[in-house]
Amino acid sequence: MRIGQGYDVHAFGDGDHVMIGGVRVPHERGVLAHSDGDVVLHALCDAMLGALALGDIGIHFPPSDPRWKGADSRVFLRHCNELLRERGWRVGNADVTVVCERPRVGPHAPAMRALIADELGIGMDDISVKATTSERMGFTGRGEGIAAMATCLLVRA
Ligand SMILES: Nc1ccn([C@@H]2O[C@H](COP(=O)(O)O)[C@@H](O)[C@H]2O)c(=O)n1
Ligand SMILES: C[C@@]1(CO)OP(=O)(O)OP(=O)(O)OC[C@H]1O
């Protein structure tokens, strides 16, 4: 088995939705990012890459590369999954925590879990997405941005 962890942050900016775990969540702000700015998928990619010491998402998908401008982060997740499948591994389970005051994540968590599980070719019960506020403290607490932390365990495929 191998274990990995990932962390990602994006500041809020103009917009009317936020992509979280591949789900379009309506919000009065968007996020500032080169891609679609999906903190859940970015943190999960980093956890998967980290588990095999394969660097981080920015190494595989440089923010300077115009191909990733506005990119759907499911492309990144798919690629990371291929990298570990090629090496004989699959995600055994993963646990992601989203940190923001708003939007509310809970109502969308089942859809996020289903989408991620589908991309990884594993069961929905092996993917957890949960959320917490920062009790109004710090940058997430002031509503300046959104963060996510992910942990994943890899098992032999
Ligand atoms: N963006 C968020 C933040 C929290 N939740 C849910 O609310 C519960 C209470 O949050 P606390 O920060 O007071 O622990 C939390 O357990 C989540 O279920 C949410 O859905 N979206
Ligand atoms: C995803 C990439 C793609 O260019 O850019 P961003 O969308 O800005 O997201 P970040 O979490 O900063 O990761 C770096 C890049 O790989």
UniProtKB/TrEMBL annotation:
Top-rank taxon: Bacteria
Gene3D superfamilies listed in its UniProt record: 2-C-methyl-D-erythritol 2,4-cyclodiphosphate synthase (3.30.1330.50)
Pathway: Isoprenoid biosynthesis; isopentenyl diphosphate biosynthesis via DXP pathway; isopentenyl diphosphate from 1-deoxy-D-xylulose 5-phosphate: step 4/6
Pfam family membership, one: YgbB
Binding site for a divalent metal cation: 8, 10, 42
EC number: 4.6.1.12
Cofactor: record remark: Binds 1 divalent metal cation per subunit.
Domain 2-C-methyl-D-erythritol 2,4-cyclodiphosphate synthase: 1-154
Biological role: Involved in the biosynthesis of isopentenyl diphosphate (IPP) and dimethylallyl diphosphate (DMAPP), two major building blocks of isoprenoid compounds. Catalyzes the conversion of 4-diphosphocytidyl-2-C-methyl-D-erythritol 2-phosphate (CDP-ME2P) to 2-C-methyl-D-erythritol 2,4-cyclodiphosphate (ME-CPP) with a corresponding release of cytidine 5-monophosphate (CMP).
Family under the similarity heading: Belongs to the IspF family.
This protein's name: 2-C-methyl-D-erythritol 2,4-cyclodiphosphate synthase
